[in-house]
Amino acid sequence: MKELFCDIAVIGAGAAGLSAAHAAASCGASTAVIDREEAPGGVLLQCIHNGFGLHYFREELTGPEYAERMALQVRKAQVKMLSGHTAISITPCGEEHELILYSGKTGVTRLHAGAVILATGCRERTRANIAVPGDRPAGVFTAGLAQKLVNMEGVAPGKRAVIVGSGDIGLIMARRLTWSGIEVARVVEIQPYPSGLARNIAQCLDDFGIRLDLATRITGIYGRDRVESVTLSPLSDPGKTEKIHCDTVLFSVGLIPENELARKCGVRLHPVTGGAVTDSAHMTSVPGIFACGNALHVHDLADYASAEGALCGKSAVDFLRGERAPADIPVEAGLNLRYTAPCGCRPGVPNRFYMRPAKVLNNAVFRAVQGNTVLKTQRLQAARPAEMLTMEITVNDPAAGVIRFELEGEEA
Fold it and tell me: How many CB atoms are located within 10 Å of the residue 307 CB?
């Protein structure tokens, strides 16, 4: 069995993983990136639309352009790339971690690393996750798979499509299918509000006259060999159904952090996000194992995942050097917020937190509170579950107790 050694092993070569690797290597740590695909970039490679990089690079880029910028950085930092390798397991062994990797070309490799960064991204929820009844014909895809088929393989998934869910990938695919000559008959969303960013609603649906039905669910998929039709039902009148003829159904019904490796090595998982629970340094409950990007919680911007990865990479280096920060101040999600990441605040230095609203609120007030003291306040014209909230705070008094984020406003 082949054996390799490094200071820091990063699993995943998407936006967060490449950023973490670049940060770690720039601090002098020998760093390896493991990814099951042959080319670095992760899902960025199939996102040929623009809108990436505005925060991280201060420039608007397409997904592949963003991936190439990140890949160039890690190459210049002399990061070792283990492409085409899948991480099978992580086993803490004293002061190091043993990773078992598998490659179809080179077989099994044992990699020894002082610290491990989980940047494994997320996976799509499928038809099975939301239990849609009916037949099981061909023509049913997740939106991400359809995106890969169209953008990377040059394959049209069908001729007339219905998109279930208004997540950002589904919205972007509504526009992409239309550009490819495929009719999008309808987009349906079970929530009373869209699940994707407002800009994608405007640019991908409104600009093309594609109809979006809110508070509507899919009640069946029908067809013998290929999808022939679907039935839809409004939540306000469950007994009423509408039949739409189509040959393709795309599901854009949410993402789940890829947490199998984390679960197997004993990392504590967050009950809301499904990703790892981490402290202010993005270290998990297992010492020496860190998490960032969509493996931690689902981000709405790759730029945020990259920023999180950079912090994670530096934190891993600090851990190996024995630089231990003071104990974290606990952080919790309060009124109208689903979660906060990370779950701890390091005293005396700036800490950035990410979270999602639990409902749509207008004229909202977003604040951080410690005890009876309001640490910081932001006023928002609107807050939506589809768009992450972020706030940077510095706290100097650990004795003042738990930090709580709150969101108040007018219900839409």
Answer: 22
